[in-house]
Automatic annotation (TrEMBL):
This protein's UniProt keywords: Transferase
PROSITE patterns on file: GNAT (PS51186)
InterPro entries: Acyl_CoA_acyltransferase, GNAT_dom, N-acetyltransferase
Classification of source organism: Bacteria, Pseudomonadati, Pseudomonadota, Gammaproteobacteria, Vibrionales
Protein name: N-acetyltransferase
Domain N-acetyltransferase: 16-179
Amino acid sequence: MNMILEVTPSIRTQRLYVRPWHEGDMPSLHRIMSNQSVHTYTDESPWTEERARAVLDWCNANKMGWKWKGGYFNCPLLLAECNTLIGRVGLNPYGDNDGIAEIEWTICEDHWHQGYATEIGKAILEYGFGEGGFASIVGFTSTRNMSARQVMKKIGMEHIGDREQHNRKLSFFQIKREQ
């Protein structure tokens, strides 16, 4: 069903865009992911420089989004106006079903509450159901993360329940491709 992508997914909004990871993204990736605030509702610790380097190297080695299986990707999120890296976004495999992807986003604390998550979230869903070919996209967050829960609702995802997973109480959301 999903094909191997040979080109960069075309995800662009008026204010934001994604592109492949570059070696020069390392300082920005580390700055964003080493901030304790972006991990408030996760079970992750702030990233060390070594962890950021390992993730960037892995993404580059696996050509995340461009030649990775299906329509999955993990890319830097940039402001279109000034080409500033402000986060990372993606569609990840979810379970064993190739027709389902998990949406994710992490945005630098300096850029919270400006509508970026909602804006890029809508664009990712459009890509996921179009070029990506997914039948369903899911998302989850801590039950306490009201901002992320609100974004998922704003982009059209439906709350399908809360459950305990990995010793964390999570809220699950889903949206299905319109037939």
